[in-house]
Amino acid sequence: MKDDNFFERVYEVARLIPPGRVTSYGAIAAYLGTKGSSRMVGYAMQASGKAIPPVPAHRVVNRQGLLTAKFHFGGNLMAELLESEGIKVIDDKVQDFKNLFWDPAVELAI
DNA sequence: CCCGTGACGACAT
DNA sequence: TATGTCGCCACGG
User: Which strand C nucleotides have any atom less than 7 A from protein CB atoms?
Assistant: First the structure.
């Protein structure tokens, strides 16, 4: 999309997230080199709704594993999607988040 | 060009 | 440990 280098970069990383895994906005931001723009990652995700192919934004959560984006998805849609992939979501937060955490700075750095 | 906003994160209290 | 506040960068108006 245009020169949305930053946004597109976020989409690319988000799409690389394996099923049943989750990552954090800060992790993606750090991987892009803009650690301080963690908010922008989420902001980009909002626009990801029109991105093609669609970005699994539901696999992206905050550093606490809390489904902050769920509020934007509407209802428990995000939780349903995560559980559908085998991720346990309780009280709007990912269980074993630390174990399911997918760090692009590490996984993609191999 | 300046101001406000935001799906976060880290630090301070 | 929990709550509060500030900072961060990119984009829209």
Answer: 7-11
Global pTM reads: 0.91
The nucleotide lying nearest A35 (C-alpha to C1') is C8
Residue A41 domain flag = yes
pLDDT digits (tens, 9 = 90+) for A85-106: 999 999 999 999 999 999 999 9
Q: Which amino acid is at A44?
A: A
Domain count, chain A: 1
* A23 CB and strand C closer than 7 A: no
Q: How far is CA A32 from CA A42, A48, A70, A76, A107, in A?
A: 13, 17, 24, 29, 14
Asked if the structure places residue A108 within a domain, the reply is: no
Q: Which residues constitute the domain of residue A60?
A: 4-103
